[in-house]
Amino acid sequence: MSGKAGRTIRLMLVDDHPVMRAGLANLLSGEPGFSVVAQASDALSALACWREHKPDVVLLDISLPGLDGIEVLRQIKADEPQARVLMLTSSEAKEDYRQSMSAGAAGYVTKSVDPDVLFAAIRGVFERQGVAEQTGLGCLDGDESGETLSQREQEVLNLLRQGFSNGEIGKLLGISRRTARAHVSAILRKLGASARTEAVTRGFEKGILKI
Amino acid sequence: MSGKAGRTIRLMLVDDHPVMRAGLANLLSGEPGFSVVAQASDALSALACWREHKPDVVLLDISLPGLDGIEVLRQIKADEPQARVLMLTSSEAKEDYRQSMSAGAAGYVTKSVDPDVLFAAIRGVFERQGVAEQTGLGCLDGDESGETLSQREQEVLNLLRQGFSNGEIGKLLGISRRTARAHVSAILRKLGASARTEAVTRGFEKGILKI
DNA sequence: AGGCATATTGGCTAGGTGGCCAATGCCCGA
DNA sequence: TCGGGCATTGGCCACCTAGCCAATATGCCT
Lengths: 211, 211
Prior knowledge:
The structure is a homodimer. Chain A has two domains: 9-127, Response regulator (Rossmann fold), CATH 3.40.50.2300; 151-206, Winged helix-like DNA-binding domain superfamily/Winged helix DNA-binding domain (Arc Repressor Mutant, subunit A). In chain A, 47% of the residues lie in helices and 12% in strands. Chain A has helices at residues 18-29, 43-53, 69-79, 94-102, 115-127, 151-160, 166-173, 177-191, 196-206; strands at 9-14, 34-40, 57-60, 85-89, 107-110. In chain A, helix 2 runs parallel beside helix 3, helix 6 (151-160) packs across helix 8 and helix 7 packs across helix 8 (177-191). The longest helix of chain A has 15 residues, at 177-191. The radius of gyration of chain A is 20 Å and the shape is elongated. Chain A binds chain B through residues 16-20, 22-27, 30, 88, 90, 110-115, 118, 160-165, 193-201, 204-205, 209, 211, and chain B through 16-20, 22-27, 30, 88, 90, 111-115, 118, 160-165, 193-201, 204-205, 209, 211. Chain A binds a DNA duplex through residues 150-153, 165-167, 175-176, 178-179, 181-186, 188, 194-196.
């Protein structure tokens, strides 16, 4: 497009699937202007790699063994707020998108986009270093209810999924059974569920709960 | 390894993520003896592609938009029982493995293996055409409870996740509330859950339920 | 300051849950 | 043929659920 070739973009890949990493590295190496300088398959080595190589752009997956990719993102940004991290994940969950962006991701691209779009996203993230919003995904789930679960509600939902009753939830959180019930009711309302069982399903579907 | 070079293996890739497909195609093309002759991103075009190209080996992902990868596998095998299909998926769920193998997959490799292992698996599948068992995964979840849900129980679990009560499940299945309850009890026992809410979670965790 | 979401707690009530006792018929593999 | 798993159904009972009526304290944003 532009005559401005720019220098080679030094990339770091973080993905827990070797097949994906190798494929991606191959793909990116074949594209002029990109150079994969580091790869990591888990949160810990990702952080170590980051500190060692300080790549121009990090391509970061969300589902990682151990620490969450979003947590890795937070730590990288805490380390260096200028870091440019492009989330590259198969998760189409709005929750992941929201959390990534508010944790400081420079962009969010799902693996369901064409390679060209990915390349463009990487260049975009690299060039406008300061800009934050740079999304490569068409449009997340349209089933928008808008309601976000509060911190407490997410805690309760995580107990719900384990099959605890309201009374047990109350004991575990040090609150009364009545309060736990109020939280459950709020969860049902926000997730549009008619029963706690459905709320758990909704939680998984929306990416609030993870396997 | 062997001096027996064999002819080039004609591969077909089925994966819903373009980034994955492109990366994989790149990776495989760089490996001598492999040739990617077709790619598909969904069940329908996968079947059409299969009939048109009749590749030596199909690399098939399970999570596909629309029809399940396992369903695609079933249809391919129905079309031609000799077809060699190697499942290549990120799912570590025993349920997916079990279903794939009983549907006639020539092998099951997760994306968490090294590319070399994948290459070896492809060659293995291609060479011993008749052999069925050829697994590339170390060992699936060891949290083996052994108990498999019956057809009816899976139906009930799918209603459970939607928040239906025992009475509603009974009406939907045309059985009595008491029978629905018996199925739920069996599900709880088999999944090691103490409440239906936990049973749903277990279903997602074990891959019996899908998002 | 006033409004709004959040977190906390209470009682009442119809209905749902899941463990326990139990039974019948079917089909399949040993 | 004799289990054993499966699908089906029944009652009893202590407990749990989720809707309804409510209240109070904390924050944060305008």
